[in-house]
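> Could you send the 2-dehydro-3-deoxygalactonokinase prediction when you get a chance?

Sure thing. Input:
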Amino acid sequence: MNGAAGGNGATPWLGALIEDGRIEMHGFDPAGRALTCLSAQAGESPADQLAAMAAQLDPRAEVLLLAGWTGGTALPARPVPCTPLAEGEATAVAPRGYAGPRLVALPPIGQASPPDLMGAAAIRVAGALVMEPEFDGVICVVGARSFWVHVSAGEIVSFQGFLAGALLDRLAPPDPLANKDHALLTTEGAAQAFDTALAETRSRPERLAAALHRATLKGTIPPQDDQPDSRRATIAGALIGAELTAARPYWLGQRVLLLADAPLAEVYKRALDAQGAEAGSMSAQQAAALGLAAARASL
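Output:
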């Protein structure tokens, strides 16, 4: 344990996942039971935002367990195959100007071929295995980055990451005023648009760039459904269709567990169902809380 305080302690503590500019922070009692959760944009200074969120969530907390960001401290990645968590592997970090609970960072997991790196998502995988310790198959962690993770005998064997969620929000940002839940399949037209785009790039992934181009056009001949919800659903379908084709070795013939929350949980499940691949599901937020508690207990 590289300078990190271990044990469960006798005070409340916090855990946070930082993924693609967002912070998801959980509050725990001394026994490791999750009590509260808070999410926010990381902003230009994750350290300042972490301190502010920690004060809001539980000012009594003395330790903040961190995954997905190391505060500028270089931590070597653990190579696959490996367990999602490594007993005793955590490092105390102190970003410049940080004024909050003691930060203890968990190392990422790396893969040499193809090159890839997984930080916060590994905590969610660990949480899924708390619920299903005998799970053998593929866990798909869905978010701004999705990770298809092959798990066997409690170890991560290999994984592959994708940017579908981030690209969706970049190409078709949700309108929080019109759709506060950011749901994708809000109308029958949006669902049909999703299915059509999914089928096209699932069978012809080389058409992805063209499909995304068409989805952003207005005033086409013949006219297409250019309502914001249908356009966003079309882009989601095209991106996920291409992702499923690339990730086919992971899900074909495998037991699949989705770790996802709205709005992406519904569309990934729908996409897999369309391929005849039945997938179980679990809240990504719940998996994060379980994984953080398991990580804290291992220190």
